[in-house]
Write a structure and sequence with these properties.
alpha+beta; Dipeptide-binding Protein, domain 3; four-stranded antiparallel sheet; four-stranded mixed sheet
């Protein structure tokens, strides 16, 4: 899981204290893919990174055992470093998989000049790191909730002050031999397999590298993936080049049915060795206008269209004629994501489980005009969210309607009146039932996008007599305050990393407080449903359990759901093979650039 938009805006660019020798192009000028991130990276360690953009880099540097087929729709898993898909026991408590031999890490001084092969032991070590308090992994919940046998005891001793014991073998996470890996959990876990993909923090790192660089490991990524970092200026520029040690992998994807562009492009790529490009250059361009201009000038090969440019790039969801004349193509992808705002359930004003507190949150939700929000913020390129289910995942129903999405100013006002939130002094703003002032406070960054979002929130709440103010700070500071429970309200987005909505139900599980449960919601009845759902296969019984959990979401409203977005991507005519996958971030090795069409010297 990655919280969308988590960012690190570092004011001073610094060159990383390492470099790598550039690799020679295969034929003539190197094929260079040029991209831009709207948010700065934080570092390159699969265990510590949680933001979307660092995770995207990591997906191309490191390898997990499995991956999603890049072009298969609907998505399906396939082996990556594993020789085959894992074998699962009938009770969903044991997974066994074999790692392929002959896979090597990129060269690094930590290996003292010797080739370093990937083994099952590397995965055991790497996954134990998630539980080591030293690394403060915010992805801990992914494995903590899986209840891997024996891992809790190691973590408890480390939390008590002892060094984390990586050498003690535990029942739940073992290398049976050099290439065979086994995972055992205390409870059935039918969907644990989705954790074993590059989008998760389950990629392999080498122990020698971690021990050589210590806390600076985020600056020294050494993986077995198709690329390696050769240049890094923080918050400014990241350059990757092909990893000379990357194993022999050929392009073997089939275009999805009905995609005419890919049906034409894929045959010319099939059978070629990955990565198809030699180099990837990523610029950090935070504002949307410069990104748009860079694409218009041919300096970027792909542009995920900023939401404030959707009407210019794709009015009505169709490619603008001025772009079509340049040979640009448009792809539109419904995202498996959810944008939301949370109420801190421990805050004395908006938190709590008593009727008057629920009524306040419910009134805020009723005042929020979802359809207007879709038009104003996304120019129609989004779907009003109804429940914790997201598109492309188990249980999602596009016809579902719930109270979470209901908009009614009249009902919001009536609810506030009923529970004593009245304007007693005639100044136009409601007070609390005891007469104390009532001012809602939502955290926000200073970006233009957030300013627009704030204007909408203020307009919606002004209309029902609720005063709202905004606490503006940089994202890292807000994230720190949120994890500590010091914010009243905040908004962001989450994206699914597999065809299941467990993540979005998990953000209300009390065991995930200070990790993904930013609302700090704690309801025993909800916890029981969530725990039960995790042990069930995807069947009618599990769907019924999740629907009941969704009902409690709507009843207590720790989160206000906003939308599921539709992403427009503009593709230059010299970029071949691009398709946005709903779950995987690894694609840079699977696209090609024609330098002649681009006009490279």
């Amino acid at each position: 899981m990655f919280k969308l938009g988590r960012r690190s805006l570092l004011a001073v660019a610094a060159l990383a204290p390492w470099s790598a020798r550039a690799t020679a192009p295969r034929h003539g000028a190197p094929r260079t893919l040029r991209l831009a991130f709207p948010v700065a990276e934080t570092g390159f360690d699969p265990v510590q990174s949680q933001d979307l953009y660092s995770g995207t880099i990591n997906a191309h540097l490191f390898d997990a055992p499995l991956e999603f087929d890049y072009l298969a729709r609907p998505p399906r898993l396939r082996p990556n470093t594993a020789a085959a898909l894992p074998e699962s026991s009938a009770d969903f408590r044991t997974l066994t998989l074999r790692i392929r031999s002959g896979i090597f890490f990129a060269d690094d001084p930590a290996f003292r000049g010797a080739p370093r092969e990937l083994t099952a032991h590397d995965y055991v070590y790497s996954w134990k790191r998630i539980f080591d308090p030293r690394w403060k992994s915010q992805n801990l919940y992914l494995l903590e909730n899986a209840r891997i046998l024996g891992i809790d005891a190691l973590r408890k001793r480390a939390l008590a002050g002892a060094p984390f014991d990586y050498d003690t073998e535990i029942e739940g996470l073992r290398a049976l031999d050099r290439y065979t890996l086994q995972i055992r959990t205390a409870e059935p876990n039918p969907r644990f397999i989705y954790n074993l993909t590059p989008a998760q923090p389950m990629a392999a790192v080498a122990r020698e590298v971690v021990e050589a660089y210590g806390d600076a490991i985020v600056e020294h990524p050494v993986g077995t993936g198709p690329f390696r970092v050769v240049q890094w200026r923080r918050s400014s520029r990241i350059v990757l080049e092909r990893n000379p040690n990357y194993r022999h992998v050929e392009y073997d994807f089939d275009p999805p049915a009905g995609d005419a562009r890919l049906a034409e492009e894929v045959p010319r790529l099939r059978g070629r060795r990955l990565p198809l490009v030699d180099r990837v250059e990523v610029a950090i361009i935070e504002e949307s206008q410069p990104r748009w201009l860079a694409f218009q000038q041919g300096k970027l090969d792909l542009l995920p269209v900023p939401i404030d440019f959707n009407n210019l790039a794709a009015p009505g969801g169709r490619l603008a004629p001025h772009l079509a004349r340049k040979g640009v193509s448009l792809t539109r992808t419904p995202l498996a994501d959810l944008t939301l705002s949370y109420f801190n359930m421990e805050h004395p004003l908006v938190g709590g489980y008593t009727p008057e507190k629920v009524a306040l949150r419910r009134a805020v939700s009723l005042a929020f005009d979802g359809e207007d929000f879709v038009q104003q913020m996304y120019q129609g390129n989004a779907i009003v969210a109804q429940a914790p289910f997201v598109p492309g995942t188990f249980g999602y129903d596009p016809q579902r309607a719930t109270p979470i999405s209901e908009f009614s100013r009249a009902r919001a006002k009536a609810l506030l009146d009923t529970y004593g939130y009245l304007d007693r002094d005639g100044d136009g703003w409601r007070e609390q039932p005891d007469g104390a002032p009532l001012t809602l406070e939502m955290a926000s960054t200073a970006t233009q996008l957030d300013r627009k979002r704030n204007e909408l929130w203020k307009r919606y709440l002004d209309a029902v007599g609720l005063r709202i103010e905004f606490r503006v700070a940089q994202w890292p500071e807000l994230l720190k305050q949120s994890l500590a429970g010091r914010l009243m309200m905040w908004g962001f987005g989450w994206e699914a990393l597999g065809p299941d909505s467990d993540l979005f139900f998990g953000i209300a599980y009390s065991g995930n407080r200070e990790q993904t449960n930013d609302a700090r919601f704690a309801l025993p009845a909800y916890d029981r449903l969530y725990e039960r759902s995790r042990a069930l296969p995807d069947d009618s019984e599990r769907l019924a359990v999740l629907n009941e959990a969704a009902r409690l979401f709507a009843a207590y409203l720790p989160y206000k759901f906003h939308v599921h977005r539709i992403q427009n991507d503009l593709v230059q005519p010299w970029l071949f093979g691009y398709s946005r996958h709903p779950f995987t971030r690894r694609w840079w090795d699977r696209v090609d650039i024609d330098p002649n069409l681009r006009g490279d010297a």
